[in-house]
User: Which sequence fits this backbone?
């Protein structure tokens, strides 16, 4: 995990992205999506750190159409940015996969925000027994 890359303005984890070997993260201006990222543009115009700091909680612009960035933003609202980074780092150490080229990650397997929030906190899926 490259913790110094942090969380993108949309809520995705630059610190765990498979692109982070050649990308300086969302706020570096070197992100491959910098020219077209609606969430980056919007939060910069509003002069806020990211979508989690926005008053528009029901926004579905850009990447907020997907559950993972919406849940990551909600996690930051509830528990803070540091706790999100701490949980992601701990989960990675315990084998939780964010994503890799061609592989859906463990955080992508949810269709319910509250279940995903619980998974971020614990690294365990509710209702599943560990082998």
Assistant:
């Amino acid at each position: 995990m490259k913790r110094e890359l942090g969380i993108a303005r949309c809520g995705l984890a630059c610190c765990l992205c498979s692109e982070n070997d050649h990308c300086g993260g969302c706020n570096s201006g070197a992100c491959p999506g910098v020219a077209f990222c609606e969430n980056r543009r919007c939060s910069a115009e509003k002069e806020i750190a990211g979508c989690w700091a926005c008053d528009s909680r029901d926004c579905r612009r850009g990447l907020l159409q997907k559950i993972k960035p919406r849940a990551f933003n909600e996690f930051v609202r509830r528990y803070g940015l540091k706790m999100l980074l701490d949980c992601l780092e701990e989960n990675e150490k315990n084998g939780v996969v964010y994503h890799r080229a061609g592989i859906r990650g463990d955080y992508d397997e949810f269709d319910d925000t509250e279940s995903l929030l619980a998974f971020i906190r614990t690294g365990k899926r509710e209702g599943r027994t560990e082998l």
About this structure: Residues 71 and 114 are 8 Å apart (CA to CA). The radius of gyration is 14 Å.
